Amino acid sequence: MPPKATTTTPNSNSNSNSNCMETAAVSDGATVKAEPTDLRPFPSVVVRWDQSSEVKLAAIAVSLKVRPRSADMPPTMQERAFRCTRSLVDRPTKLSHTHIARSLKKEFDGWYGPAWQCVVGKSFGSFVTHAGGGFVYFSLDDDEDDNNVDTNKKRLSVLLFKTAVRPVIQSEATQ
């Protein structure tokens, strides 16, 4: 299943030149409300991945029982998030949601640089600002779901995003 489409509009309240986006996500599995806002003075260029990457990612998501909900991230990074999360969830000793979030954050900090944030749970709401190209929101189906027809069962949801990090420069007046 390809990620849902989002729109990008300039933010009139900011003078920043950073490539940040604001996105809301709800983990109830029904709908995801995503409304990114580009903080740069000019609207950003929408990056389209080639169709073979999207098809491959969709096949990987199906095989891992992952449901992508919303993404602003290259397919290879999404694949890493899906595979890492699935391996953490499928361990013989069950990990807490906090441990899964910490492990996924450390994985992405190690591969793609610092400032990654992760939220894992069955029920949460969020509204986050993230760096462009650094956002994915998805849910995982349990292996027991094959035998259980209960569609009201809450799925484990994952929100992974990168924040913009800028060095703090002290002015001469404050030193």
TrEMBL record:
It is found in: Cytoplasm, Cytoskeleton. Residues 1-19 have a biased composition (Low complexity). GO terms for biological process: microtubule-based process. Keywords: Cytoplasm, Cytoskeleton, Dynein, Microtubule, Motor protein. Residues 1-34 are annotated as: Disordered. Coiled coil: none annotated. GO terms for molecular function: dynein intermediate chain binding. GO terms for cellular component: cytoplasmic dynein complex; microtubule. The keyword Aminoacyl-tRNA synthetase does not apply. Belongs to the dynein light chain family. This is Dynein light chain. It comes from Stephania japonica.
